[in-house]
Amino acid sequence: xxxxxxxxxxxxxxxxxxxxxxxxxxxxxxxxxxxxxxxxxxxxxxxxxx
Amino acid sequence: xxxxxxxxxxxxxxxxxxxxxxxxxxxxxxxxxxxxxxxxxxxxxxxxxxxxxxxxxxxxxxxxxxxxxxxxxxxxxxxxxxxxxxxxxxxxxxxxxxxxxxxxxxxxxxxxxxxxxxxxxxxxxxxxxxxxxxxxxxxxxxxxxxxxxxxxxxxxxxxxxxxxxxxxxxxxxxxxxxxxxxxxxxxxxxxxxxxxxxxxxxxxxxxxxxxxxxxxxxxxxxxxxxxxxxxxxxxxxxxxxxxxxxxxxxxxxxxxxxxxxxxxxxxxxxxxxxxxxxxxxxxxxxxxxxxxxxxxxxxxxxxxxxxxxxxxxxxxxxxxxxxxxxxxxxxxxxxxxxxxxxxxxxxxxxxxxxxxxxxxxxxxxxxxxxxxxxxxxxxxxxxxxxxxxxxxxxxxxxxxxxxxxxxxxxxxxxxxxxxxxxxxxxxxxxxxxxxxxxxxxxxxxxxxxxxxxxxxxxxxxxxxxxxxxxxxxxxxxxxxxxxxxxxxxxxxxxxxxxxxxxxxxxxxxxxxxxxxxxxxxxxxxxxxxxxxxxxxxxxxxxxxxxxxxxxxxxxxxxxxxxxxxxxxxxxxxxxxxxxxxxxxxxxxxxxxxxxxxxxxxxxxxxxxxxxxxxxxxxxxxxxxxxxxxxx
Lengths: 50, 631
Ligand code: SF4
Ligand SMILES: [Zn+2]
Known about the structure:
The complex is a heterodimer.
Chain A: E1 4-8, E2 15-19, E3 24-26, E4 33-40, E5 43-49
Antiparallel strand pairs in A: 1-2, 3-4, 4-5
Chain B: E1 5-10, E2 15-20, H1 23-29, H2 32-43, E3 57-61, E4 75-80, E5 87-92, H3 96-102, E6 105-111, E7 118-123, E8 126-131, H4 140-151, E9 157-160, H5 163-166, E10 174-176, E11 180-182, H6 187-193, E12 196-202, H7 212-227, H8 230-238, H9 242-250, E13 279-283, E14 293-297, E15 307-309, H10 313-318, H11 328-341, H12 345-360, H13 366-369, H14 378-390, H15 394-398, H16 401-409, E16 419-420, E17 423-424, H17 434-442, H18 463-470, H19 484-501, H20 518-529, H21 535-555, H22 568-571, H23 588-602, H24 612-618
Parallel strand pairs in B: 1-6, 7-12
Antiparallel strand pairs in B: 1-2, 3-4, 3-6, 4-5, 7-8, 9-12, 10-11, 13-14, 14-15, 16-17
Zinc ion binds at residues 9, 11-12, 14, 16, 27, 29-30, 32 of chain A.
């Protein structure tokens, strides 16, 4: 299984899981799709809308 | 740490009186912002105009400034400001404040006007008033370089004004090093009106920390607490531009003078990640381990070769979304110019974007300006900025801020000016976030995001968690109005304490609920100063200090009618953004209720005037002048 990390969704404000190194992720709470950047190899953040 | 000095400087009489800061004043106001306003409240009467020699310019270091914890490189600069004619106040990072303390002084209370340009040199317990005619006309970088050379010490730290301050542009600032700005409130203009070009300082005196070992141990623990947060990790990589990604995606970033609440897809080139291509290194204020500042270099294009520091999030609005430009080169170039001129880039950008919208609406014409003001035209942005700083043609009018300029352009134009109490707003678009809207409206220095902004409101934290953090039941939903009066009140007091201690807001509860706050400040103060404060006492000091600023505004004619966000935020709904942001605008009735909740929480009446019982409880008396007589 690949490693999972968390980012905060800008639509529902909840934390959602992001796969390690992913550039795109979908919030499992509200379905919003985001472009992801990585602050550190363990810390993803939403960069903008996908 | 308790036998610190305040210097009263009269530039007209060329005299300096030095006194010890009494312990009772520390117990009532701490230092920094709190003590600055104690001196101004007592000594600046309502008939004194901002540029009158009788106005005070007070420089204050926080009670913890210069110590190795929580980014204590801060200096507070306070005065009766030209934009609001009330509280004019700025907080500056960098290294000036610490150096001033090492030179033996915590506060400089300056009045009068020098006959010719001068600078103050503060060195190990001594203050000299020196001639500065040869520095007048130099930009802020050149001035600091000349001072280091003239004094013959590379470690001299200065706070200086540039062309904007010399020309008394109402939103001129003071600068230390390349990018540390005492940005808001027009303090640089007041400094210019006193013919005071700079204050240079160098010191090697002991700070006399009460319990050094315990202080260092606890301070290191605090620094670790900050560094372990996701917020600090993100900040130390991206700096404040990180905020752009959230605001433009969600839809709370003023665009084309707040006609829109985000540029949408067009704004993508300004995402924080793209600034990485310009960064050559990270820098920091004295004593800070977060390192949120960037040194940047433009490698290609029109401005190739430019090396500078910054920009912050503010500039991404000023020379970015507000004027319809989405180009890091312009943001970096504009930032460097603003730093050299010594001008508040936030206010400058808001005034420029206002002029652009007036041009769009044909209230201003090409004949008025001398050229076209078309959205996205970067040369027009830079040229208008220069004209304002130089007070050239229409720039002379705009340099006096919205309120005075609108009197000449036409009162209708004021609707498009996004300000509170005459002070321009950060490019945040607050119409979808009631707590932010209340915060800019009640801020004592006019529209501002650093006086109470509860940025953590955006996280929609669980209500039980918020109750533990704030001590009150606060609604988690950031679009709600109820309880947000209490939230803003809490942050007003808290930020006052942060500014009075001289710690960095980025290492406070501002953006991160896991950063240190009152509970951690109590031991820090104990180990540093030997004074025992309880959390409740600190909160009461925050209330006392804040209420004195409020009283100063009331005495100077700023009351309830000035506690409202821009009219546009009530009338025009958001046109863009995420689905829940689209269509939002402020609700007048709900806003009114929130304002009443806020007044009540402060112990103020329904007109926002502090009640007698509140003043009594806080021990605030009528102003009593106490600037020592100097002959
Ligand atoms: S976090 Fe940034 S602004 Fe705050 S003290 Fe550190 S470098 Fe300065
Ligand atoms: Zn979501």
